[in-house]
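Input record (Table S2, row 277):
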Amino acid sequence: MQVVKTVVEIRGLRQKLKGTVGFVPTMGYLHEGHLALVKQAKQEDSAVIVSIYVNPTQFGPREDFAAYPRDLDRDIELLRKEGTDIVFVPLDDEIYPREFSSWVDVEKVTERLEGASRPEHFRGVATVVAKLFNIVQPTRAYFGQKDAQQVVVIKRMVADLNMNLEVAVVPTVRESDGLAMSSRNIHLSPKERQAAIILFKALTLAQRLWRSGEKDAEKIRRQMTALIRKEPLAQIDYVSIADAQTLEELNSLDRPAVASLAVRIGKTRLIDDMPLA
Ligand code: AMP
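Output record (adenosine monophosphate complex):
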């Protein structure tokens, strides 16, 4: 496994690869969720490239960029065990040189949900992912269902800008009690960790109602909200039942949908979702 820091180096290595190249962009502090993406790439592609970069432009001014957890040595060991071929760990000025001034702005699907709560977030995500795609030139790029809106945004960008790659989506990996794995879970105190199960409980409630034939999306949102409100440590940011493609809120569950939510547990903001399709 090779670990490289510069665009020149990764381009050199990329040119020598034969067959398909699977690419997994991450912000590091890896867990089984990230590794599921790597495993799937390993199965489907001839070579696997993983990037680790905590992208400053996708964090808002009051967000946790500085406090975002980092452990590069451990990440590299985990990736080695998975049989990763190349790890790209760019330095900041490699991605954003001083004169940097081009941005990728995906409209509409970025307006709601995470986009409403985090105004600059998806501009940062789309820009860094577009840059990484240009640098790595993958055949397929792997993203987690855990960040449902991110998947919609990336697919939109790839289609709109005719990027020559396939976007693969990997199901969310969860702890045994249902909490979606996330690098941010490390910030939860033991009490908060217990309380955090409420996200999964609300999503399984939505799934249960939907499976039993409930079509009224507002009824489901209301029941999810009521359930989360019973957890004293939880503060709701949003609860959504939306069209899986456009992310517009639904009145009636008459097409593929996704239940998603953002909830603050103490100071930690967690997101999760469940496809209803
Ligand atoms: P991040 O490092 O948080 O930017 O995540 C990198 C990639 O891993 C993204 O495509 C995430 O959606 C994906 N990911 C993060 N957590 C999980 C999880 N629990 N299950 C599946 N994929 C995940």
